[in-house]
């Protein structure tokens, strides 16, 4: 399928994990993809791997908390590929601790990367997409932003904030034919879940009605749907990709 043929996409935090899966699925569906990450070497390798598959990719390092860097990232996509049709704000970090042990710096850093980063990306992409009168912005939230996770007051707050950002931006940009939606992944098979004690992972899977942990491609396919014309009449929604957990 080539749902995104002729379109250009930016994916932040895409050197590895869910971000890389998103970049790969978008590229396999015809998009020219800007692979972006604060890890410049990782982004370059990921883009090179996509190009080795015959896909169109460009690596652009970016710290999503840096306003000028985010603007330059979006401009690089437009300059290289001619447009910015899809923006996926995926970059994120964790600094897990209970509130009693969490420092103010750890709280602010996580909120800054997730929420401020998504706001900067949405604003920068929106600037270009308004002129184009088309575009799809997908913000990666988390089921933690809905249910809250123990030891993640910073992460859960940031991910909940992304939902509010998404809905407000969707209202502002709708008149320009720009759609803004969010995806809330649940437990996904990543390096973080792989490091969990087996008994903890088993308990987690038991809490998922569909009976399995999610794969990065499950999230990527949801992003593809929201990025493509299959969702042309959808904006301001939150799509849960969690196997029914916390439904």
TrEMBL record:
GO terms for molecular function: oxidoreductase activity, acting on the CH-OH group of donors, NAD or NADP as acceptor. The keyword Transport does not apply. Keywords: Oxidoreductase. Residues 7-191 form the Ketoreductase domain. SUPFAM superfamilies: NAD(P)-binding Rossmann-fold domains. This is 3-oxoacyl-[acyl-carrier protein] reductase. Belongs to the short-chain dehydrogenases/reductases (SDR) family. It holds the Pfam family adh_short_C2. GO terms for biological process: fatty acid elongation.
